[in-house]
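Per reviewer request, we include the raw input and output of the structure prediction for the construct analysed in the revised manuscript.
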Amino acid sequence: MKFIEWKQFKKVIEKYNHNNFEFFKDLNGNSISHLKKNARRLYSTLLFFNQYSKQSSRLCDFGTFPGTLFKLIKNFYPKFDLTATGIFETSEYVQMLENNNINFLTADFDPVFLEGYSQTKDSFLPLPAKTEPFDIIIASEILEHLLNPMYMLRTAFNWLKPGGTLIITTPNMAWIRYRLMLLKGLSPNPEIQSSVINPTGSGRWRPHLRLYTTKEIWEMLSAIGFQKDQEKFIDLRKQDDNTFLKDIVYAIPAFRHGILLSATKIIHVNSHLQDKPANQLESHS
């Protein structure tokens, strides 16, 4: 099924029914819609996801808040069985999801943030009781917020059906702006004080802790047992930012803002998570 064009998607944005959770304050203190601020990325994610929409119908989103992506998926794919996840979510937020026919599971995909790396080094979050494995899992703009991304990626592997697909979006460490920052002696990573020395953030929000290249992400996924499927780099420029020079620069995919990739859960005889029966694997709950 062919997905709608960008011009049509902009009309969807105009008619979109926002909830109170989808508005944030920008650096100037002005209220801004999560959908309008991230329209390009959300559209690129939906366009990419559409390739897998026939795969089946059980979909889980890791770190759903504020729910914009899932509401859009529900709009375009009403027959999908959707499960949202998160921590510290209010009853009002969960009710909003349920009103949109979206299931909710409380799940912390980075307990090391509070408990220390040694306690979660080789573990993952077990699939909740009475929950069937998923055909597709989306982790959109989550990886860069985690102290131990392997915990989340192992959990995704554990929660997927054999042959299931993991879709990831995350900022691109190799973005041209970040390359220029390095030339100036600056780090594209967040300030060391807030990301490493004294990590801040609580509840639904925490800062970016680390950025990745595609090579690094594939290394992590391969170590767990995922097989590489697709990767692409997405251009998140606003319409009025399309200068001639930038058009030339962004013609090189790896110079673009964001990473969008998919990996497949393949059952290998020697896979790290398949060497032992599930009940013998170390878990963390």
